[in-house]
Amino acid sequence: MSETICDLTNRSCKPCEGGTPPLTRAQAGEMMQQLDDGWVLAEDASYIEREFKFKGFAKAVYTTNLACFLADQQGHHPDIRMGWGYCNVRFSTHAVNGLSENDFICAAKLDAMVKTQDG
């Protein structure tokens, strides 16, 4: 599993073009195996989501900032909700109305960044 995650973390997002179909539920399910267990695949396979939990506000802010930095770096922007003790990150690809490989690349990169932050 770690080799595959490494593969995703070493890749970069590609610009999405119209007319590209979203990943099927089966394809998304296969890609989920490459992510941390904290990620959840939506029932309709339209997004992946992870809630990071903390014992305070600061780490939630730091994780939100990591997700924002990653989004800016990759040109692929998640929906983020945060508050005291949590940061919720949801990836989907609006251009395809569902999931693309970019979502999984960003999720794997975010996982790696959070693990580095945790020490």
Summarize the structure.
The chain is α+β, with helices and mostly antiparallel strands and 119 residues long.
Q: Whole-number average pLDDT?
A: 89
Number of DSSP helical runs: 4
Q: Could you tell me the strand content as a percent range?
A: 15-25%
Topology as a string of helices (H) and strands (E): HHEEHEEH
CATH fold description: Gyrase A, domain 2
CATH superfamily: Transcriptional coactivator/pterin dehydratase
Q: What is the radius of gyration?
A: 14 Å
Q: What shape does the CA trace take?
A: globular
| Main β-sheet, spatial strand arrangement | 1-2-4-3
Structural class: alpha+beta
Q: Please mark out the parts with pLDDT under 50 across 5 or more consecutive residues, or reply none.
A: none
Helix content: 40-55%
Total number of β-strand segments? Answer: 4
SSE order and pairing:
Layout: H1 2-9, H2 25-32, E1 40-41, E2 48-53, H3 58-74, E3 79-83, E4 86-91, H4 101-118
Antiparallel strand pairs: 1-2, 2-4, 3-4
Helix pairs in contact: 1-4, 3-4
Describe this structure in words.
The chain is of the alpha+beta class. The chain has a single domain (2-9, 23-118), classed as Gyrase A, domain 2 (2-Layer Sandwich). It contains four helices and four strands. The protein has a four-stranded antiparallel sheet with strand order 1-2-4-3, with helices on one face. The chain is globular, with a radius of gyration of 14 Å. The model has no long low-confidence stretch (mean pLDDT 89). It comes from Marinobacterium nitratireducens. It catalyses: (4aS,6R)-4a-hydroxy-L-erythro-5,6,7,8-tetrahydrobiopterin = (6R)-L-erythro-6,7-dihydrobiopterin + H2O. Its EC number is 4.2.1.96. Belongs to the pterin-4-alpha-carbinolamine dehydratase family. One of its GO terms (molecular function) is 4-alpha-hydroxytetrahydrobiopterin dehydratase activity.
